[in-house]
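Q: A reviewer asked whether we had any structural model of the full assembly, not just the individual parts. We don't, so I'm hoping you can provide one. Inputs are below.
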Amino acid sequence: MNTDQTPIIEMKNIEKHFGPVIALAGVSLSVLPGECHCLLGDNGAGKSTFIKTMSGVHKPTKGEIYFEGKPMHFDRPRDAIAAGIATVYQDLAMIPLMSVARNFFMGNEPMKRVVGINLFDHNLANEVTMAEMKKMGINLRGPDQAVGTLSGGERQTVAIARAVHFGAKVLILDEPTSALGVRQTSNVLATVDRVRKKGVAVVFITHNVRHALAVGDRYTVLNRGLTLGTSERGKITPEELQDLMAGGQELATLEGSLGGTV
Amino acid sequence: MHRFIRNFVLAATAIVAPLVITAGAAQAEGEKYILVSHAPDSDSWWNTIKNGIALAGKQMGVEVEYRNPPTGDLADMARIIQQAAASKPNGIITTLADFDVLSGPISDAVDQGINVIIMNSGTAEQTRKVGALMFVGQPEYDAGLAAGLRAKADGIGSFVCVNHVISNTVVAERCRGFADGLGIDLGKSMIDSGQDPAEIKNRVMAYLSANPKTEAVLTLGPTSADPTILALEEMGLAGELYFGTFDLGDEIVKAIKSGTIKWGIDQQPFLQAYLPVVILTNYDRYGVLPGNNINSGPGFVTADALELVEKYAGEYR
Amino acid sequence: MSDNETAALAADERVKEMSGFRKALIRPELGGIAGAILVFFFFFLTAYDSGMFSPAGVMNWSIVSAQFTIIAVGACLLMIAGEFDLSVGSMIGFAGMSIAILSVSFGWPIWVAIIVTFILCMAVGAFSGWLVIKTGLPSFIVTLAFLFILRGLTIFAAIATTRKTIIGGIRDVSEGDWLAPLFGGKVLTGFFQWMGDNGWIETFTRGAKQGQPVVEGIPMLMVWAVALIIFGHILLTKTRFGNWIFASGGDAQAARYVGVPVNRVKIIMFMFTAFCACVFATAQVMEFGSAGADRGLLKEFEAIISVVIGGALLTGGYGSVIGAALGALIFGVVQQGLFFAGVESSLFRVFLGVILLLAVILNTYIRRMITGEK
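A: Here is a predicted structure for the entire assembly that you could use as a starting point for your response.
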């Protein structure tokens, strides 16, 4: 891990207010190419708001976003996608009624011209989908198989493969493992590892410390809209991470009087 | 899968079989005549028509059928006439509710060699134009005019026409005739009441509250008359307000008896259904045909001589 | 291992033993195909000698089916995009009345009246679509409002301009117009005349049309229906926009996240539905020569029923234009065929309800097999 590298994306002192509610009160984070940066935090810590700011859904109230060293403003999710920031949402990754190939190319349909009309190139889409799925270790019956017949983990994998195929430089994964069984989780984690090795930066949102430690290079913990600090792999123990997530110092001081039972 | 399809077929057959048997039972020996009306399913007045053709069919030993567009859409009715022609009956009895829409299909049927009699709605001139044999019905404008003159003689100077079939131009002629009979402009005197009894009742009450000087109410059939009777009773105007109606029905007859309704104009729908079947049958069998159109109405029904009307109201009257 | 996963594995195993034949069978249109075969089989048995399959009879139910098809294609694409339009019937009345008032009462050339009406209707469609998107209300409610608004406006406009609710005389003003035959004309008339001359099809035996075939030609209504089916089918299955339609109806939020312009897709589909209603109305007005304020009553439900018989999912994201067209065919054949078969006409609704129910049950079963829906 070379920390002298230029971060591919850097968020500085991001604040986001929804009316009187302060969702983010100055969050900073930087992501390096090829690293898996885990964003941890308890429910309501501001993880969702933060990644939605990163992916262009929300505009920050204050703060700056640097993408490949240059300041950036995302007005719409499309802008972020165009820049190379892809987000895979937990339940909204795929459309179950549509085929895998149609899902894979949704929003990025390959075209071919037939008698002067632009048509969806189904042959190309089918070939690419089958090849990409094979690389990810999913054996499809056919490219027209509906996503609804895939398991939750497979759906996440398809979504990740899709983002990478379409040139994502930063991949934001919103709780990809929270609803999955053990085996499916390890499949997804293996996929994350594979993607990272291709040089794609991964922002991995989770509240499961074990999942984070399994793939993460760096860990940033959010609590009540604030960054509680970033730590590198091997420099923090699972217990410390757990404590930070559960309430930071306040809880750590409490722990003494509770006799280490929390 | 296969089992599913088999079940599908079995279920469909089970449901359809009784219908076919019903249809088969209706088939008698002899000629076949189809009556196509413009009335939606909800219009109960057409029951008399159904009973009329059924009785004529039985007496003459011919097969009769009644068809109508379920929603009263006249474009659908045109398709039904085309369909009736394609099924090659001996004759078609139909209304001319809208000349533009129906003249084409009707004259096509005539040109295919099918005898057509126009009933209920239409004029003598239109009947000639489409090539139909004759017209059996009540000339609506004339009926309205006659009613208007009668009301004028009774000292009436203003009225409200409760129209439940606002889209039927022919029926609206009754209001125009009535207004002309009174010698006033129809203007805002016609209200679109819709088909729902509760709505009709409340619209009539609203109109009468807003226009307390209204001297008479004219309804165009049982659909609008029945709720209007209730409206007048509720407002305490029953028997006070001059109330005339077109067409008859159970409630109308009772109201005529009790004095709420002054008179009902009976176009005698029974004759409109019964006579064409008899005429067509005799024309097909012996080549005889009356030499003119038949006016089945208007006949004024008042509190005198109600006995037979009362007995058969809604069935043959 | 979670229950979820066990189920998924089981599903995989079941999927693998599927034969090629069976795979070919399960298509969204299967319900429609099975229904159409069944319906034709039934009427061949019960109404074969009633004239239902004579040229005039075939033309009769084909036209009715074509009418349903025109509005069903629009309703189908909109439903796949995840929205409903309950104002289709009122839109038909509104469009017809607009053409009649502009051409007959205002004396505009009929082609101007038609074009203005199309623009007007598609603007109304765009507006209701925009309202649905902007307010986030269900399209069911928004278009229900338009059902009343448009019907009321139609009656009001007719009475305010002419004091009548049926405006005739359109045939006279459309005489010699270049655009009107595109909706009210007939094609292949020479071919049918030739068949009539050869005695292959029936001809009129008396009157002004003596010697002319009973079926004069293919009405433009049917040409429009076929054109719309082809257009809709290609749009849905073979283009990028078609993929967006599926995506918008399948899961609008997921589609937005990958950059599909969901709002634009939905509004365009509302406009397309309005366009189809307008085609229906224009063809009807041109054929019958008059516009009535009550035209098109309940047509929205007939369109939706056709689409549902054709295998589309009421909640969006799944369906087929070919299926919708088959649904419309079934609907038309049943509606007219029951008359031919001499079945008491009040039983039509019973029959329709039964067909609808059977088709939906079959379609649900097929869809579960395809999509692994629970």
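A: Points you may want to mention in the reply: The longest strand of chain A covers residues 21-31. The domain at 9-94+168-258 of chain A is CATH 3.40.50.300 (Rossmann fold).
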